[in-house]
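Friendly challenge for the regulars: who can give me the structure tokens for this chain first? No prize, just bragging rights.
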Amino acid sequence: MNMQLRARVKSKILRTGRGATLAHILKNKLFVRSLLGFLFLLVSCFIAEEVYQKLCRSDFFQITSMKIDGNKMVSNKQISVLSNIDIHSNLLAINIHQVQSLLKSHPWIAGAEVTRSWPNQLLINIKEKKPVALLNRESGLFYLDNRGRIIASAGPDQELDFPVVTGLENIPMHANQAAEIPAVLVDVMQLLQLASGKNSILPEQNISEIPINPDNGLLLYLLEKPFPIHMGTDGDISKGYYRLVKVLRDLYKTKEFSKVSYIRMDYQEDTVLVGKTESDMTHRG
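First reply, four minutes later:
Bragging rights claimed.
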């Protein structure tokens, strides 16, 4: 019995030792493979980086043309300078997101899409801010967007065919700042938005000037015939606009428009007073 027991113990020790040695060998092989794989990846990345750097300096990807679309207020030259890209730049090396950020820093540019056209053309699609009016200030005229925010100053060689808002010359307003827009200017923007629709009676193009008076509210002057239209201060711009459209339609229909000297939309709650060169008339509704 003792001999058999010793033989079993010895056999068990041999099997255990052989298993431990095999596991150790497998573990070493796995480590070696992992190390070789890591070294291969490291070398591959190094080679790829070297290849990329050489391509970034290669004349093959040198930009030969830059196509710019969508710009009207910003010139191609301004966009080229602002993007910091010229014909010597490498198409592969430029940072697309950085170029887009540089372009959007311009006050007129709301967005920019920059794409590569291989091997050597850059495409830039500009989305400009849309002006809806001009704001008269002590320092000159400024373009306003549809939220009443200042875009930029207006130069004499730029398009000036927009309604001019006056009466806010001394109210603090700054471009590119989140300053609070005066409530009355918000009403002006709502009025212009209504007029920008397809309404032939009172389109936005027929509004010449919008003087603002803190006490008397909004006035309108039409391009067709510059008589004052008193919109009042009740705050319901939509209702006032469509009532005015109805009044103007009736005046055009009866051929009385040429005789009008003023219109008071704020005369009474349900009555509009139309002043004429000969007499005054009221318009219900």
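The mean pLDDT is 82. The CA atoms of residues 195 and 204 lie 5 Å apart. Your move, everyone else.
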